[in-house]
Amino acid sequence: MLQKPPIITHAEFFKLGYEKRPPVTVSARPFCSLSIRKSGETVVEFDGKRLISAPDTLTYIPAGCTYTTYIPKEGEMYLLHFYTAPEGGELSPVPLCVRSTVPSSFYHMFENAIAHFSAEGCDLHCMSAAYELLSEASAAFFHTRPAPPKRMLRCKAYLDENVCDTALRVGTLAEMCGVSEVYFRREFKKFYGASPLEYIKKRRVEIACQLLSTGLYNVTQVAERAGFDSVSYFSAEFRRLTGQTPSQYQSRV
What we know:
CATH topology of the largest domain: Jelly Rolls
Number of strands: 7
CATH architecture of the largest domain: Sandwich
Largest sheet: 7 strands, antiparallel
Shape: globular
Structural class: alpha+beta
Oligomer: single chain
Number of domains: 2
Helix content: 40-55%
Number of helices: 9
CATH class of the largest domain: Mainly Beta
């Protein structure tokens, strides 16, 4: 766990594509970066150490770090650049790289933050998203969350497979695990960083974003296919999690 968390003064979010390139040296920069790679591969070398950033991998580069990087495989990544106040702490004094066990959660958070930053710039919503990403990344880098037991893994797999089923209930998942609903909610959050209900909402909105991006469905159809009981509830949750209405999102993709 971080003894003293960073104090973020400015945050910027990007989605970047990159091509193969030979080694280049990146001089010390005034900002930190946190990224997750969707495809391709990048190698980072510093102080005789070598990190490989592959798909679903989180990579952190602290401010003031000079390193060498090259790209053996072209691809795409989501990226956060953030500046910090000197009186705060830092995630790590050296670069870090780890494969995420829940990459879809990071993709969802990044996609929402990128869409909002593109529309509104760095506001309180973006600052909140930056802190949330750093919190989740800290847990991934430093393994602060224990590994879920097999019964929880089975329930999580069932949830992911049936997340768009409007009949899906947290109580049903608890029964599958053979525990009370209160205990299940507490354990799920311990292992996955969010309550089961919040996780379901985020996954449904993530799926809704994918459906809206196709241009094949209207908002009502997307709400139904993503597992929401009503269009009004869908619209409210979509706006809460993305900062824009479904129609606004669809018009921008």
